[in-house]
Amino acid sequence: MHLRVMAGLLLISLILIAAMPSESSLGESYKLVYIHVPVTAVMIVSLILFPILHFRMALSDIRSFSTATSVYSIIHLIVSLIFMYVSWGGIVFSEVRFAFSVTLFLFAITYTFLCFLDSGLARAYSFFIYPIILYFYAVLSRTEFQLHPTAVKMPLLLYIPYIFSVPLVLLLYFQLKNFVRSKC
What we know:
The protein has helices spanning 2-19, 33-56, 59-88, 96-117, 119-126, 129-142, 162-183. The protein is mainly alpha-helical.
């Protein structure tokens, strides 16, 4: 049942994304946001919730959630690199949002490793996500020039694919979590 729903959401998402007109400042490259934004949101929300979930969930669930989040952090980083290359013609490692993406990737991978190594250490480490996010928020709010647009002005029509891509990304996340849990 879940696979049919995911296949349907994927098909509808791909058709809608392909059918959307170009965005005025980013052209066709903006279409990556339909995957990038939901993956980023799921990853960041998961990282923020881990300190709380660590006290409420079984270790096997924490391990599977952290592994799924690490996979999403890899996807997030890859999509960020592709978006940067397609939009700007190269990769700018010093760009603040990219540095944030790399930091989240390293945090997620380290947290997952710690979940399998020492649960108590992983629980303590999980709280470092809050100062990391606050730091990058402060840096982003002070940065005058950003290669990555803060908010792209898109007509309302261009938000329609999110209706299908967000549930698809969430379902994939939980399917991945369940797959990892079955292997642990």
